[in-house]
Fold these 4 entries.
Entry 1:
Amino acid sequence: MEITAAQREVRTVFLGGFAGQLVSSGVWFLSAATATWYSPNAAIWVLFLAGIFIFPLTQLLLRLMGRPNSLPKGHPMNALAMQIAFTLPLNFPLIIAATLHNRFWFYPAFMIALGAHYLPFTFLYGMWQFIPLTAVLIVSGVLIGMYIPTIFSLGAWFTAAVLLVFALIGRNAARS
């Protein structure tokens, strides 16, 4: 199978990242709401614990939409997708270290790690749209962390909204 055909199949099965980003957006909205109306510590746990279920919830959403929920066995992009999936959890020690240094850096640090996590999606899906998503998350994480760090939930609300917008962009790109 050629790379472009494999990428097209990834785009088709996962709707250009729509389902995963929609679920991720929901998790970030839940964490943002928890930070705003309950407590920052609880919000941190919500993002970490609910984040564990993003992939299974994405598969469930795809199934509910009547779509296949995974690539076929032996697909040439399966190994890359698995490697990409582990890039974010491997950054948790860095996020934790930033948070221990300054609790208000939790969301900005997570935004930077999430942005870096999305960069290889550009190749996996064969979609340039993941480059601006990466840039928006990383630059915003840096700017919020440096210049607006005292509004704890700001990064969470912003990330949730960005993921929702890019879910729709990805779906439209995959359809065309």
Entry 2:
Amino acid sequence: MDRERIAREVRRRQAEETLEFEREHEQTLQEQVELVIADAEGPKLDAAVFERMSPEDAEIVRADFAPPSVHDDSPGIGYLERDDVIFFDDEVDQHDEELARLNQELDECRRRQRAFQAYLDALGG
């Protein structure tokens, strides 16, 4: 039994799995950054685009992009089961804070990826 070979294979597998996880995590964080930006900039964009649409079509899109508040007690409207909607009380500051947090997490995620890639490179064949 070649113990070093077994240890090397297990460590390689562990490092590759962690690296793959970090890559997926980075993609998720990037998507969250995009959603926060869309939430911050979307209303200005929507206003301009809605001007070029029929009122009926604009209302359909507006209803989907501007869901009711989580505090809306209208019949048939409860908390939306969407994971792409973020509710902020103080829009600008919250967006900036969330973007800063997500960007810091992205930096940490990318740093972990570099470290695990360096480990795999150093581990060799």
Entry 3:
Amino acid sequence: MEMLQKNGRFMRALTTAASWPLLLALCCTLLVAQAGPDGTFDRIKSLSGDWTGKMTDNMLVTSSFRVTAAGSAVIQMLGEGTEHEMPTIYHMDGDRLMATHYCAAQNQPRMVLQSNPGSPNTMRFDFLDATNLRSPNDGHMRRVVITFIDRDHLRQEWTYREKGKESTDTFEFTRKR
């Protein structure tokens, strides 16, 4: 209760006429931090919904994107409802956009958006580190490249590394209507 009273006094102080410039600066800072330096997080948020598609080997696959945690994270659920469903959580970490992949290989690679992917419609997240990765030779995701084809079509290329060798699976998705 004491915390609420202190916060209430803070909010009243912020809403006085003399505090408007401070409040405006604070709001602008929060909006920029939330969207990332170039609005990339907002692009991830725009994927919200259900998607169907095919993998490289023509296997059918589903995915969903859901904005959560008061807009501070997006959960992608790849293969939802299957034995090997894998969530990836996209979120801001300071001024960088991160993707943490909870893999069926039972590790959790953290990947960071690269600043120059080569195309304005492409986002490339590269490996930073991982939890539950006993050795760099153990199988784990190293990269995900997201290509925004149009509002209803999306390509993801997931690169997996095991024992120093990489393989990439491509997923072509269409938004469900």
Entry 4:
Amino acid sequence: MPEAFCIAYKLECLRLLAGKPVKLALYTNRANLGALTEAYSPENEVSGEGYEAGGQLLSGLTISSKNETAWARWSDAVWPLSKITARWGLLYRSDTGSAVRVVDLSLDGGDVISNNGEFRVALPSSGRGVIVI
């Protein structure tokens, strides 16, 4: 029988996020974010109408599983009537500053722009959650 983490443990790990404040901060294309990012930093964070430094508190955490995969996701983050130019997003625990996940906002490798409109970050769902284990 192959070795594997059990689904019950995966779900338990993800449930540690329940009740924890997680924010999504937006960054310019100059940001150096990746798997080794340890914490939130204001360096190269976007600025613009409708956006506050530190990003937006996420809500609607759901934790699900299917077969051997477990995932966590939050509701989409929306900045209405904003002027934002962003390339990256960083999910982080706002109580500790600890980085959770870097999100590539672009489908084509370029910036995503809102100009007096809605800036929406559609977070992955159903088996492609923000955090998948």
